[in-house]
Amino acid sequence: MSLKMKHLMEQTGESKSTILFYVKEGLLPEPEKPKPNLHLYDESCINIIKFIKYLQNQFSYSIAQIQAIFKENKFNFSDDFSMMLRSLQMMSGASDGKWYSDDDFLELSELSSKELDEYLKRGLLFRQEQGFSTQELKLVEVFKRAKTLGLDEKLFDAYVKSARELAKIEYALGSQMLERDKSLNNEHYELLFDSILTLKPYLFNMHTMQEHKKQMELKNR
């Protein structure tokens, strides 16, 4: 099914200038032009525009970041987890756009190659396609402070263990969803994003706060 610009605007709530901008930037496919004054847009543009708005509103994504997600121009909600995984990678990467090679990262972090390899092996750091980001640099500082203050790093390893177990469950649930409904739309992906990026940290942090509160009450009895 094809849509005229007017109908696409009505379905998405976006202005004509914004839609044309998305087309210009490669976020939307070029419309069909059966007649000089008739431009027809694929129905999939509705979900694409809604998903772009979701990324902008919920995660403050820039157009450049969204372009990075769409760079392969294979926006297909029923395809696989590639869309979601690329988005998560962007969110977990360098918010300031800075990436470092192994050598630069070692110099900036003042880690030895052996120390870096150990953190990678334990799952405490990750080397992404672009290299290492400022996020990894910040985490190295956390690790160093933990050693200085004598914090038991078993806590960090417990985080990794929990994260790996949760990741398997998240993937399994997502796969079941895909198998059950091949016509997944942006609402399914929004739910996955909200569960992983909003609900999960909320529950972890709130349970930590509740445990601290409970322990303090026990000590004060």
Brief write-up:
With 221 residues, the protein is mainly alpha-helical. The protein has helices at residues 5-12, 16-24, 44-59, 63-69, 82-92, 102-109, 113-122, 134-149, 154-180, 186-219; strands at 2-4, 32-35, 38-42, 99-100, 132-133. The protein is built from ten helices and five strands, in the order βααββαααβααβααα.
Whole-number count of domains: 2
The first-to-last residue Cα distance is 68 Å
Let me know the average pLDDT: 83
Order of strands, widest sheet:
1-3-2
- What would you call the structural class? mainly alpha
Largest sheet, in brief, is: 3 strands, antiparallel
Plain-language structure description:
With 221 residues, the chain is mainly alpha-helical. It folds into 2 domains: 2-75, Multidrug-efflux Transporter Regulator, Chain: A, Domain 2, CATH 1.10.1660; 99-219, Multidrug-efflux Transporter Regulator, Chain: A, Domain 2 (Orthogonal Bundle), CATH 1.10.1660. The protein contains 10 helices and 5 strands. The strands form 2 sheets. The protein has a 3-stranded antiparallel sheet with strand order 1-3-2. Strands 4-5 form a two-stranded antiparallel sheet. Helix 4 crosses helix 5. The longest helix has 34 residues, at 186-219. The N and C termini lie far apart (68 Å). 14% of the residues are buried.
